[in-house]
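Retro notes, item 3 of 5
We never archived the inputs for the molybdenum atom complex last cycle. Fixing that now. Sequence and ligand:
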Amino acid sequence: MTELPRIARLPSVCPHDCPSACSLEVEVIDGRTIGRVRGNKRQSYTDGVICAKVARYAERIHHPDRLLHPLRRTGPKGSGAFERISWDEALDEIGRRFLAIEAEHGAEAVWPYYYAGTMGLVMRDGINRLRHAKRYSGQFSTICTTTAWTGFIAGTGRLAGPDPREMAKSDCVVIWGTNPVHTQVNVMHHAVKARKERGAKIVAIDIYRNATLDQADLPLVLKPGTDGALACAVMHVLFRDGHADRDYLARFADAPEELEAHLATRTPEWATAITGLSVGEIEEFATLVGTRKKSFFRLGYGFARQRNGAVNIHAASCIPTVTGAWQHEGGGAFHSNSGIYKWRKGLIEGLDKVDRNVRQLDQSQIGRVLTGDAQALRQGGPVKALFIQNTNPVTVAPEQELVKRGFARDDLFTVVHEQFMTETAQMADIVLPATQFMEHDDLYQGGGHQHIMWGGKLVNPPGECRSNHEVICALAQRLGAEHRGFGMTPRELVDWTLRETGRGTLEELVANDFIDVQPDFETAHYLKGFGWRDGRFRFKPDWTKVPNSNEGLVGPHEALPSLPDHWDVIEQADEEHPFRLATSPARNFLNSSFTETPTSQKKEGAPTLMLHPLDAAALGVAAGDHVTVGNRRGTVELDAVLFDGLVRGVVIAESIWPNGAHRGGRGINTITGADSPAPYGGAAFHDNKVWIRKAV
Ligand SMILES: Nc1nc2c(c(=O)[nH]1)N[C@H]1C(S)=C(S)[C@@H](COP(=O)(O)OP(=O)(O)OC[C@H]3O[C@@H](n4cnc5c(=O)[nH]c(N)nc54)[C@H](O)[C@@H]3O)O[C@H]1N2
Ligand SMILES: Nc1nc2c(c(=O)[nH]1)N[C@H]1C(S)=C(S)[C@@H](COP(=O)(O)OP(=O)(O)OC[C@H]3O[C@@H](n4cnc5c(=O)[nH]c(N)nc54)[C@H](O)[C@@H]3O)O[C@H]1N2
Ligand code: SF4
Ligand SMILES: [Mo]
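Structure as it came back at the time:
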């Protein structure tokens, strides 16, 4: 066992799938025990602030239910009957079964499946090295960012923007389609600083009066999937009232005259009927961002989880172009900085081994894939083996009825490498115990900021837990997969990656804990031009040429509006399904992570459905009643909570509870869809038409 120092406060990085990617300071009590976790004050985006669930991380890392040993299934799938086996037995069996499946059905019958349970580059993405070396089926990762990134890049040409710390220097922070009080506390921290120090206004736009809207000066609650209409009406007012920066538009935009003409009919009255907002609210918002040039649009993922999400986030990003806000410190639009890092991940991901002929299966369609949907399988053979790291699809993926049916297949060999016995691990043939972030070394980047960060091993893992990298390398050996990366340590991979990318060395990074790689002001504010060849922002994007996917066009992409608009392709309520459901994030969970920690469970209580009191009355539902929520995909049971911070006809189930936490054992993703939103796919988790009945 490695000797670890007995030091009080050591640096680390939060590895969870969160744009804040906080720089941490961990109290290390001894070689295997931690105390309190705090935000690092030296890193200027984190600025000492982290969320409560990570502050109490001792609960998760020292949880009595951590998986400690490899397990083999002994009863029927999903029965929970497992026996303890050794690592060698586990790895040998996986090797044997994968090779046999490959021999009989071809390499594409094996599907390595992963996501961002850890955001560390080595531990998250190393699975792709095994995939590529073996020509296993590819994964088209659609579950989170696809619609949002597509929509943002459609205008700017690049996934980057002004330094997010500039929020604190803004005169108006517009928090749009994200609930940072729950999902990324640091946004709130910098926005509130701007209000305190310079009297900035905070606008927050969501579909219910959530914890962020409660703190806003101008909270706007609109109907789901109508943000494009709001953006158009705001721009109509900006042109009408002389707040458009015509000089800037002439220099930096593609089609300002066409946009202005198009917007002539997109009046606040027009938008009122679509969004449910009042004319006064729209006018007030437009005047605010028209008169305060330093307006910072912090655009989230949430409003892009609609079938028209790409169009809506693009429409929102057009506003600072009309006002010219991009030119000012504290102005412009920011969604993600993922475009600034330009990592050379050749060794981590084994990119030299990529075979473009191997099929790419859509992550969000795992239910369809496993139940033999020919289109989802790209007309190829069935998936016979799954190797899963860093994700919990049996809770988080849409179309759960298909997902569960697929995982229950007796002819499917499933390996799950996990920290806990998740609902996915429960369906496995072999379960492998994984380290947590403080138990291994890795490299991190901020999506919502601009730091490269080092998270070194601080404590020894419990039991026989192994890191993702160790498991991938051990499997590679048994599977005859060859690549230089399998013979390297995480530190060596990080050092090579940093050097190749031109970001110094491991030694330098470890010495500093993090490096600030924010591009210069003119680049970040697109003053040298937007990310297109002509340097002009696209009001009229060519949706077939957004550089965010090589997977081709999907969904009703032929019908995409050419200019910002309300695009009516959402699941509109109808007679059979009078309500629209969104599955917004719960504060004390992070997707399905932290659903295992007692404090988070206690704070969240039970799976609930927020319902407008008048809607509840019409349904004969009282607070605390069980309700059944359904659509053609299935049904789920929740406890009714009456809340008037909703537009009538809209309901919210803060998520993601395990399926098993619901009466009947069906979770919220039973009723979400896996159809692909245009133009490049994604998952429309907040766009569901449903019916509601009082449960019997
Ligand atoms: N506590 C907590 N933190 C998290 C997560 C979590 O589950 N819980 N998840 C993590 C992950 S993986 C991600 S990707 C990020 C995502 O974080 P965000 O960018 O905040 O995105 P979402 O969590 O999907 O949703 C944010 C908000 O969008 C709202 N919304 C839904 N539809 C619409 C719409 O049509 N218009 C508007 N204006 N708003 C809409 C929802 O009600 C919700 O309040 O958060 C991360 N952080
Ligand atoms: N209804 C609804 N569904 C949603 C969403 C929604 O808003 N509504 N949001 C969607 C979004 S944005 C996302 S990103 C997905 C996320 O869904 P997931 O990617 O499944 O995220 P988590 O539920 O956090 O599960 C991550 C798992 O990885 C494990 N893990 C963490 N670190 C490691 C490690 O180092 N090694 C190994 N082997 N395992 C590790 C954790 O224990 C945890 O069980 O969910 C999507 N699903
Ligand atoms: S806010 Fe996000 S990145 Fe920061 S500690 Fe919490 S989960 Fe981690
Ligand atoms: Mo996500």
